[in-house]
Amino acid sequence: MNGIYGRAATGLQDSSWAVNESVAKIGARGEQKTEALLNGFGKKAAVLHDLRIPIPGFKANIDHAIVSGKSVLLMDSKMWKPGFYWSLLGYRRGWEKTPHIGKSQEYVSRAMNSFLQGTGARVLTPRLVVWSSRDGQPLSTWMLTVPGAEVVNGLRIVPAVKSFVREGSADPAIVRKLQELLVKAPAATKPAPHWSDADQFKTPVRPARVDVYADDNPFA
Length: 220
Prior knowledge:
The protein has helices at 21-38, 106-115, 157-164, 172-179; strands at 3-5, 46-52, 61-68, 71-80, 83-86, 92-93, 96-97, 122-123, 127-132, 139-143, 150-153. It is an alpha/beta fold.
């Protein structure tokens, strides 16, 4: 069951949650940067992108999940302004207060543990993957702690994942269960069919034969 499932930022196609469309695009960039790196591990583990948090009525998503053996590593990608982030005297960027970055992630682990109950899955502490919103201007998070998550600079995510995927091929039962949470892109709206009395005299057009032997590519 190793492979790549889903696409990053699928749920961000609806930008109604964001302050404006520009903010939504910045958020999507962070998810896509992490996606590009994680997909390189698709032969060693199961890599899933954009999953619903299994809480009824909850709109936020889990950006990424990696399954190696029976272990599950959840990741949330963020794009933050460059600077020095720390949390000794509250949450700050430099001396600027940034309380929003200290939101606890503990509910994500609890919800996923409950959802995967019976599969033998071991859900690890989620990782908060942080990228600088400005190329060439770094950010530092070594003095930042967030409840229920470990903060990882996006530039250091590859070594962290390498040590995780040594647990072996992804457990099929866990991957199948997680696939139930994948967010699907909204279908394009089709125009309503037009019908007139003259249509009843037209020769019906036979539909093209469906090739039942075509392989479905689960990694497309």
